[in-house]
Amino acid sequence: MQKDTLIQCHRRIRPYIHNTPVLSSRAINRMAGADLLFKCENFQKGGAYKMRGATNAVLQLFGKLPVVTHSSGNFAQALSLAAKSAGVEAFIVMPSTAPQVKKNAVAEYGGKIIECEPSLAAREAAAQEIERETGAVLIHPSNDENVIVGQGTACMELLEEHPDLEFVLAPVGGGGLIAGTSLAAHYFGTSCRVIGGEPFAVDDAYRSLKSGRIEANETTDTVADGLKTQLGDKSFPLIQRYVDSIIRVTEAEIIKAMRLIWERMKIVVEPSSAVALAAVLRKKEKFADRKVGIIVSGGNVDLGNLPF
């Protein structure tokens, strides 16, 4: 994927997305000992950065074929909304344990929900069955080149506003956001290093970078419900090539960082979004006195089930 691919993607999706604000907090900067700039994708359409990749993927389909995906929530909402904008049908496979607030949003955006057991194998099997039955085009939430490029446009916008960033941090789940972010930093940054944040409980990406092959998770016991998926063969090579490192954080650190953003910045973010800030606070010495971008991935939190 080249620089022009990102530029063309951004031009293509711009009418359908928000150029989200970049916010900062003096209080959090003091705590971190660094200049932190938060790219607030919690204000994106659909409540998360995934609207970018979903829109790019849908807009590049030929004809009016229906689409199908499997997602715990944010990509489910994004694809439903992108499909609605493009006038196509969207089938969304969701684990039965997905937050009700996310199921409600998918239904509101017109997505047809099919529930399944909360495992990656069950999600993939259900999506493949719909693909066979309906002729729908499968769009993977993260392991799709059009999706990855679309996700990278958040970092593009951040670097347009702050071209002198020394680091950009993003949470790591399926790898689409960090892969796209690393591409954008490579082509539009100036010696800008990309670092992932990942829970210890689901540290497959950290282990994958160490072993050189895609590793799986044995548990999904994390409050960061958007980060329970694993890397794919499209995202992993980009992560290997362009991502500097991955910092793992504890559940307590995620919850503390999430609460900090709510209290100090007065914005609603979901647990997955707090992982990048938690990584900065865990490794303060690495980012001391540096200018650091943080991709706030989304704000689709179940208000009836807050972790604090």
CATH class bucket of the largest domain? Alpha Beta
The fraction of residues assigned to DSSP E strands is: 15-25%
Give the biggest sheet.
6 strands, mixed
Read across the widest sheet, the strand sequence of neighbours is 1-2-10-7-8-9
What does this structure look like?
The chain has 308 residues and is of the alpha/beta class. It has helices at 3-13, 26-32, 50-59, 74-86, 100-108, 120-134, 145-161, 176-188, 204-211, 235-242, 251-265, 271-282, 284-287, and strands at residues 22-23, 35-40, 67-70, 90-95, 112-116, 137-138, 167-171, 193-199, 243-249, 291-296. The longest helix has 17 residues, at 145-161. The protein folds into two domains: 3-48 and 144-296, Rossmann fold (3-Layer(aba) Sandwich), CATH 3.40.50.1100; 50-138, Rossmann fold (3-Layer(aba) Sandwich). The radius of gyration is 18 Å and the shape is globular. The strands form two sheets. It has a six-stranded mixed sheet, with helices on both faces. A four-stranded parallel sheet has the order 5-4-3-6, sandwiched between helices.
